[in-house]
Amino acid sequence: MSTSRVKKVVVAVGFGGCILAVAYSAVRTFEADSTFSILLGAFGVALFVVLAALRWVTADQAEKGILHNIYRVLPTALDWSCRLSIRLVLATTLMIFTAAASIWLGPMSLHSINIKTDSAAFVRVDTDSESQLKAGDGLLTLEVWRPGQSHDQVLGAVRCLNEHLKPWKPQRRQNLLECGEPLAPVLIENGIDLSSVDQTTTDGRRTIENVMRLRQAMNQALPQRDVTDALLIATWNVRRLGRSERLQESTYYIAEILSHFDAVAIQEVDSKLDALHNLIDLLGSNYSCVYSLTSPCRSGNKERMAYIYDRRKMRVGEMVSNVILCDSVQPRRSPYAVTFDALGRRFALVNVHLAWGSGGWERLAEAKAISSAVYKQWEIEPLWGDDLILMGTINSADKNGEEAIAFADCGFTVHPELSDMSTYHWQNRAYGQLFTLHRPASTMCYGRVGVFDFRELVFRVDEEDSYRAEMGEKYTEKGDSASRSSFYSRWTLRQMSDHFPKWVEFRFIESSSED
After folding, report:
1. What does the alpha-carbon distance between residue 283 and residue 263 come to, in Å, rounded to a whole number?
2. Which residues are within 8 A (CB) of 154 and not within 5 positions of it... i.e. 6 or more apart?
3. In 3D, which of 444, 236, 224, 229 has the Cα closest to residue 348?
4. For residues 384 and 349, is the Cβ–Cβ distance under 8 A?
5. Strands (DSSP E) along 414-500, which ranges?
6. 135: buried, middle or exposed (CB in 10 Å: 19+, 13-18, 0-12)?
7. What are the CA-CA distances from residue 383 to residues 87, 124, 318, 346, 437 (Å)?
């Protein structure tokens, strides 16, 4: 082969390598925002310019115009006597560099990571961006997709996964494939940010101490959350949220409790939303909320119902609506239904708050009307998904009372342990409850269940004197210590709630049938 032809081949290979480097860099940069990919692309562009100069610039042409400066800076590179050897070295270096980068970065592609394991799991990461593990032929393929998400949201999900996969070097991934080691769980760290609390004040130090006490107790009492496994759902009647005059300290405590769940159905939300938005601000950008219209009935106390949920695991689905009752009985507070997508499944949550007080006939009528209406709509509407969780404040004193029977008659079930768990401060009554409905195709099952009693963790008996100023004259004017202690007890209920959150861990089992 002639020297001229060798030159052409070398230059052509060099140009091709540059183009591949730039194209590969562009794709990798879009997927993972990799600094290394950007540098690779910049290197490819620079080398392309040098090779172009070496290919088309002659000594005579370089004496004219702007290329004269390049000729002066790179006299050796532009000297035809050694251009061939330099081009060979540069082209070979580029091809080796590009091949090595492809080998190194290729297995890190988030679209094709296969990990042998015996069970499938579903992953949800970052704000409204999803990743899913799908089972097939004994391998799990980790995929990233973006159903309508923005570019920033997709990059957020990719960065999160990339950080998790960073320790997996190529040899390590090969070992995973060989030994069948499963994907390690991506744990969710519970708790709110306390950086806004003034630690220089007595109140601030007390707030931080009590929040940490709450966090420790909840971490011990509740299952550890991660993005790949189970859902932790709770219902909580937060007394007069937005109407009671709460300390900001109390809002920190309520937000800390909420931060340990994937979704919480809240009752007694006031028509004014400042308190609800304050909670969301304390919970941070990982959390969001949806809420119903204000109850139009005077007996409904102008209350709303709301859901606060963790956007790292859950996304609001296509249906957000008050439940329509085609019945002569219209409840004081209309049930609030929302579908959610989480862990690769769709399910519905229905938030209810039945009438309270001595009018048991009204509460029973509401229970019958709501259970019947919800069941009929869920039965004919596929948008609700395969599972429905109806939860809220039932206000029934008897776990086997007529209200519970009304829900059971429509096919609703309740975990046997939940029926006996009291959620009310004053009496041993399970006012808060969670019922479920499941279609035949459902794979949802119960995990752990419980009620979180916070009475010994915040606003404790031994802290009464430290809140003297906050309670004001109504407290100090009490004549004896017993009366002041009684006032303090009631005051703490207005700060927190006279109800406790009841929670259920829901798991999903993999179907053994093949599609």
Report:
1. 12
2. 129, 144, 146
3. 444
4. no
5. 432-438, 444-451
6. middle
7. 63, 21, 7, 8, 14
pLDDT band at 257 (very low <50, low <70, confident <90, very high): very high
Tokens representing residue 49 in the block: 């310019």
Domain boundaries, the chain: 3-108, 113-179, 202-508
Our separate counts of H helices and E strands in the chain read 16, 15
Using the structure block, give the residue that is written with the tokens 């002569």. 328
Nearest one of 415, 368, 426, 473 to 237, comparing CA atoms: 426
> Cα dist. 274→267, 279, 298, 504 in Å?
15, 9, 21, 28
Q: Which residue has the higher pLDDT, 190 or 35?
A: 190
Task: Read off the pLDDT of residues 344-366 as tens digits, 9 standing for 90 and up.
Answer: 899 999 999 999 876 678 999 99
Would you say 415 and 449 are in contact if contact means Cβ atoms under 8 Å apart? yes
Joined together, the tokens standing for residue 474 give 């109504």
The edge-to-edge listing of strands for the beta sheet with 336-342 is 314-322, 336-342, 345-353, 387-393, 432-438
Between CA 435 and CA 417 the distance in angstroms is: 12
**In this structure, are strands 502-508 and 231-241 parallel, antiparallel, or unpaired?**
antiparallel
Residue type, 285: S
Please report, for residues 64, 222, 315, the alpha-carbon distance to residue 155 in angstroms, rounded to integers and kept in the order given.
47, 31, 18
Q: Which own/partner contact pairs does 454-457 have at CB distance under 8 Å and 24+ positions apart?
A: 454/214, 454/217, 454/253, 454/257, 454/496, 454/500, 455/425, 457/210, 457/213, 457/214, 457/217
Which tokens belong to 259?
């931060």
Q: What kind of architecture, by CATH, is found in domain 202-508?
A: 4-Layer Sandwich (3.60)
Is the Cβ–Cβ distance between 432 and 235 less than 8 Å?
Answer: yes
The span from the CA of 178 to the CA of 115, in Å, is 9
Can you say how many angstroms the Cα of residue 369 is from the centroid of all Cα atoms in its chain?
34
Q: Which residue has the tokens 């390690």?
A: 184
Q: What is the pLDDT of residues 283-329, one digit of tens each?
A: 999 999 999 999 887 778 889 999 999 999 999 999 999 998 887 78
| CA 262 from centre of chain | 7
276 CB burial (10 A radius; 0-12, 13-18, 19+): buried
C-alpha distances out from residue 424 to 222, 416, 497, 503, 507, Å: 19, 18, 9, 14, 27
- CB proximity list for 406: less than 8 A, separation 6 or greater: 364, 367, 368, 371
Question: Nearest CA to 498 among 132, 248, 240?
Answer: 240
